[in-house]
Amino acid sequence: MKKLWSDFIYNLRGMRTQMFLILLCVGTIPIIFLVNLITNEYNSQLISQRTDELQSYGTVISNLVTSSGYLSTQESSDVENETEEIANIYQGRIIIVDKDLKVIRDTYNIENGKTIVSTEVVKCFSDDQNKYINNLGEYMQLTMPIVDPVTNETTGAIIISYSTKNIQLTSKAVTRKVIFAVCAIVLVILLISFVYSIFLTKPLSKLTDSINEISKGNMAVKLDMHGYSELHKITDSFNQMIEVIQNQESSRQEFVSNVSHELKTPLASMKVLSDSLLSQEGMPEEIYREFLGDITTEIERMTQIINDLLSMVKLDQNTANIIISNISINDLIEQLLKRLRPIAGKRNIELIFESFRPVMADVDEVKLSMALNNLIENAIKYNYDDGWVKVTLNADHKFFYVTVQDSGVGIPEDSLDSVFERFFRVDKARSRATGGTGLGLAITRSVILLHRGSIKVYSKEKEGTTFTVRIPLNYIQ
Questions:
Q1: Do both 98 and 157 map to the same domain?
Q2: CA 291/CA 62 separation, integer angstroms
Q3: Are 93 and 106 in contact (CB under 8 A)?
Q4: Least confident among 64-78, 265-279, 429-443
Q5: 454 is in which domain, residue-wise?
Q6: Is residue 357 one of the residues assigned to a domain?
Q7: pLDDT (tens digit, 9 = 90+) per residue, 136-171?
């Protein structure tokens, strides 16, 4: 029983059920209200019409009474016949009262000769109104003054009581027909609401099915929904999300493959070198030293790859730890150049620093040093002997700009879009020879993005490369 109740509540909260109920209410409540208004108005119109008819007959009777002197003689066949006929037609009762409130004519012959005290009758002699209507449930009572046309004096009153039974029967008959029509309309609305709610929620069911397929590992799902513009937006957003997931999955697989390859290469080299040492006996000490030196180089290369991978993983995390402090960017770059000058000096490469103004900014000093160091070190590694590397620092009211320009080998145009990808190398042989891991620019880009900045590259083969970094002076949370 508890499960049935929980299922009922679950279905009741469903978008299809709620939409169905809303459409049903929106369609039926106004109709029911309108039907009630129309039937009440129709009933009022019938009563008003009947009252107007009897008022006309009352005027005729009043004229007959005054012209025949019926109030004083109490004898007039015209008055008696007219009142009797009208009372029979309308299933009612007519009473004529003189100015002393004495009943001189009662079609029921019950109150003749009696004095009648009625609020409406009394008002006829004191007010100027020509009719008073009193609702008595199944009867309506119309009271009219009898006015002498000569003296314009109220000499009596006519009380006409008539049954509303026929009116109610007519009104009920019309109401039944209207209710029948309303029920038919409600059934149509019910059907339309049900079909329309299914139509509106069907795309959501397709979306749910697609998400379930993705959760099972099927990344080939494509959503195709037509109809409202909102559905097109959902379709486009969903398919874009799938495309991003597919790209991320491809990148992940490629990353794993590249990591395996990069780690396997130095291991294979060390194995070959160690096997050579083990397989040959009595080799000179110089050969042993050379082989051990090569093994040390491969170990250092593997260590560098692992360190870069760890840096990459840390920077990839959404919650990467960034320690912001306000530092001098001028001093930071000068320290980097001081550290790298010995490396550049080995190939007679000139390091130039041009600063247009002192720049203070909110940055993570360690991470930004690593990023700029990668750019400057690459400019040295991929340069010609006797070349130059120029680092420029500038700022405006919002950002500071670091440009690293070199006279090196350059980057092919078709490779410019890929230089920030992990393990990408323009010249694999040269990269390995210079000790590159293919992760430096990827790490640099991640650091700059972590600072809410941007990096662009411009290059031409055999002429040099320029990297432009833009970072906000104030760190944006």
A1: yes
A2: 140
A3: yes
A4: 429-443
A5: 322-472
A6: yes
A7: 667 788 888 888 888 888 888 888 888 777 777 777
